[in-house]
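Dear Dr. K.,

Following up on our conversation at the group meeting, I've run the structure prediction for Polygalacturonase from Thermogutta terrifontis. I'm pasting the input sequence below exactly as I used it, so you can double-check it against your construct before we proceed with anything downstream. Let me know if the numbering doesn't match what you have in your notebook.
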Amino acid sequence: MVLQHHFTWQVLFRLTTATAFACFASSGAMTQEKDTYLVTEFGATADDDVLDTQAFQKAIDVAARHGGTVRVPKGRFITGRLQLPSGVRLFLEEGAVLQGSADFRDYGQGRWTDSFLFAENAERITIEGPGTLDGADCEIPGGEEGFRGPHAIRFVRCRNVTIRDVTITRAGNYAVLCNDSEDFLISGVKFRGGHDGVHAQACRRFRVVDCDFRTGDDCLAGCDNVDFEVARCQINSSCNGFRLGCVHLRVHDCRFWGPGEYPHRITIKKGKPRTNMLSAFVHFAPTDRNPKLPSDDWLIQNCTMDTVDAVYLYDFEKGVWQTGQPAKRLVFENIRAQNIALPLRVLGDKDRQFDLTLKNVLIALRDDRADQPVLDIAQFGRLNLENVVLQNSGKQPVLRARDGREIHLHHVEAKPTNPQPFLWSNVEKVSQD
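The predicted structure tokens came back this morning:
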């Protein structure tokens, strides 16, 4: 029943997003046929330390009036904040580096919302590579955590946006921050260092495909989102792969691995750089954001995980940034997770709305952390395990469950052989074969 529900949603999601993305993809193709504006023709000069903000902004404004393309040639260009209007395409050629100023005052007033590229109430925007957007690790003294600087790209109430084939590196804060925006395609983007990769708040219909995340903070984050698909991505972090709140999330054909290639930024400042990847997925619904939506209808398919602390974490009672809205239905299918340090741990809400399905799944704890359950779940509605292998040291049950409505176990194997592989209490219905 759960899988059929996901299949139905997948069909509807694909039809809806295919129509939406076809519309703005075709408009992007039309943009390429229109006028192209080379930034050097507006006074920008490469490979010096002179700010080219005015030259870039003039080229952008002219291109936007005609639905054209701003072309950035090979070389390094330094600017402060740039505003992107509707209908503009920013194209960074091979070898082009658009580098942000090292002075936070070139982006605004030193506020958390400052950003390198900014768009508000805009549509039909494309940012395209193969060049690089370099945030230069710009810091704001007294900013969040005492140092966080401007975001690399920020969208507010925007729609029909494409970010394709660029590298975003050294972002002063988030690489891509989106608020109340819809119909985004983020494709073939490389995220290097910085903080969060894609942070979306109250956004709808996002596709993130063929991207390579190697971030110092969460790869994908935010809450109150609807209809997200993440496909064929590389996920590496010194924090979390997904710290997300979303209704209708599909993640498939992705690789998760740790440790992080870029240390968690705040730990660098503290002099003790940390690189362990905390979790592949963690529920995100912070009360201070007053979230309106739960996390519901998640389908995670065809993924591998290696040397990640946890596959999934959810604690509705005491979890950090997890108590604003509950999580509900979650399916893991065709998953291979190895060298895991912590149990897949769930403490749901008291109404027991959380349902978990594992189908064709292997989770193996690493040798030095193997004396604990692989799956530890409490206050849940339905737990369904089908063709599942759970591996620990054999000294503890692989499954510990309590305060639930139903457990269904079909072809579940504990490795190594364990005289008491499953332990449950206060569960209303259990079926096992």
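Two things stood out to me. Residues 1-33 have pLDDT under 50 and may be disordered. The longest helix spans residues 2-33.

Best regards,
J.T.
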